[in-house]
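Hi there,

I know you've been waiting on this one. I reran it after we fixed the sequence typo, so this is the corrected version. Both the input and the resulting structure follow.
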Amino acid sequence: MKIYLGLLFLFWVCSLAAQNSLTINVSNIQKIKGNLEIAIFNSDKNFLKKGSNYQKKSVKITGKRMSYTFANLPAGFYAVSVYHDENSNQTFDVNFLGLPVEDFGFSKNFKPKLSAPKFEQVKEWVEDKKTITIELIPR
């Protein structure tokens, strides 16, 4: 009986851990074309490096404001990056100087000056149902 109750309790705790979600509302979309590329990171290790995200989603743009929810996340810190992939090439395009040619944004609406943010500057605690809004920075 004790083993059964222990297993039941463990199952209940695990099911609670998977109920966290992060909804990302994106505003200031200038053109209704292409996709929003949304990535969440759960560590400062390789933050913003291509392919090192925890999860990502490409969402077809259908309006000036868009929303997407990442479900079943473990509680913890997450940083979000998003960009408007106007040409749908799944690459954050920059010019020959390395300056963005596509609109972008980060959690906490961090506005970079000379370089990309650090994980610590944009991380958000996610537990239960967290919602954040990111306003895209025009290029």
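Quick highlight: Residues 42 and 134 are 18 Å apart (CA to CA).

Best,
R. S.
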